[in-house]
What we know:
By secondary structure, this protein is an alpha+beta fold. 18% of the residues lie in helices and 13% in strands. It has helices at 25-31, 62-66, and strands spanning 4-5, 50-53, 59-61. A three-stranded antiparallel β-sheet has the order 1-2-3. A hairpin with a 5-residue loop joins β2 and β3 (59-61).
Amino acid sequence: MAYGYWPDLTPGAEYGPCAEPCQHRDCAQLRDPEYPKCAGCKEPLKAGDRFYFNEDNKPVHAAELES
Ligand SMILES: [Zn+2]
Ligand SMILES: [Zn+2]
């Protein structure tokens, strides 16, 4: 399984939610402050961090799974 790099989720960024308020379910998930939190250490992932999605589809820092 390959790791990914956490995208910049700033509203209006390439992989972020819409810059303006909207009704998209995907955008609501991206705006949720819980969404970027690592399932391991509970710290939010930052843009450019290496990560995996775990079996619950939650992000985890790659370094925590590789150690
Ligand atoms: Zn949207
Ligand atoms: Zn972590």
